[in-house]
Amino acid sequence: MYTGENRIALQSRAWLIEALWALMEEMPYQKISVKGICARADLSRQTFYHFFNQKADILSFWVAQRYQETLLRLEKTKAVFLVEVTEILSDFFVQNRVKLRLLIAQGQEEILRQGIAAALSDFSRKMVSTCQKKQVCSYVNAFCTGGIVQALICWFKEDAPLCPEKFSALLQQLLPTLGTAWPGI
User: What is the pTM of this model?
Assistant: First the structure.
């Protein structure tokens, strides 16, 4: 996958991403082809394959980009408490609600699940490196990551979800031992 900083290349990648989202609004994901994405973006298939191996990679890349932005917010906090983690993640869902709902409606929930799990795992690995009881922290983080992923997706699928603050409070009630600090063991 392309990792350079060439502005023209980055713009081409952005056009491919926008083209897929536009096509997903018009037709089922399964009917969208690489050829169709390229036609919509007015780019060659060679350009597509310079950036992505398949159309699912576009969605995975988009989700990963959004989560990297979210992780940067988490990393800037002095102490990471469960409330900050859940509020920042729920903000992510609110800010990207339209596209994420489209992703789920198109049957691509697994891409979202994998993206959330990867982002939380990456973040929690960084937290475990500072934990004195590394093995216990690893298990706690694995448990929390899975639970938070499923709770976030459930929360997001609701037509009238709780506000982010209430959702965070609910998670804190469900995970009371982790309410003070994550992974504060």
Answer: 0.77
